Every structure is written in structure tokens, then in C-alpha cells.
Amino acid sequence: MIFLRLHRSKLDGNRARDVCCEGQNYQALEAWDAYHGWIAEALKACVDKFGFALLLDLHGQSHRRLVTELGYLVTVDELLLFDGVLDMSTRPTSVDV
């Protein structure tokens, strides 16, 4: 497990590096580099050992209380499609490490 124990007001690890923090906060940028480096190392180690890896990103939300949200890059329109249509998708099913 990899934990990012910084408040999102200091660093948003889910954003691209160029917009992850306010201004040119070099400490936050170093933390972003380390965090994403550890993720890449863990994914590579799992793929090397098991042939695959499952990455789960868990964090709180402040906009909805008592709700668990899943982010999986699927649009609302895609969720309404039949399984057979989704099975024919040409979208990538994995991310290269």
C-alpha cells in the first residue's frame, strides 16, 4: 500500500504534476514525484511477479456525504450500453507501466 498523507490543499496527487499544487512549491513537487515514483515501482513489481496489477485509488470526497464513489473512466452514456456493446469496445483495458 502506498499512502499520500498530505492534505489536498497542499498537494493533489491525482492531478497532473503541473497543476498538483499552488505555484512552484518545490517541496510539493518533490512529494508528487516520490509518490508517483513509488506507485510506478509497486505496479512494476506486481506485474513482474504476477503478470498483472490492480491499482485502487481510495480517498475521501467533501461534496457528498455517506456516499462511496467509484471512478473508472466510463461515461454515463457508456454505462447505459448493453454488455455486448461494451465487449466490442476498442478502448484500452490496461495502462502501461
Key terms for this structure?
97 residues
Tell me briefly what this model is.
The protein is mainly alpha-helical. The protein has helices spanning 26-50, 76-79, 83-87.
Q: From the alpha-carbon coordinates, what is the Rg to the nearest angstrom? A: 17 Å
How does the helix and strand content classify structurally?
mainly alpha
The ordered H/E elements are HHH
Number of helices: 3
Q: What is the average of the pLDDT values?
A: 84
Please indicate the percent range of residues in DSSP E strands (runs of 2 or more): under 5%
- End-to-end Cα distance, whole Å, is 17 Å
Largest sheet: none
Summarize the amount of helix as a percent range: 25-40%
- Number of strand segments: 0
Low-confidence regions = none
What would you say this structure looks like, in words?
The protein is built from three helices and no strands. The longest helix has 25 residues, at 26-50. It has 97 residues and is an all-alpha fold.
How do the helices and strands line up, and which of them pair or pack?
Layout: H1 26-50, H2 76-79, H3 83-87
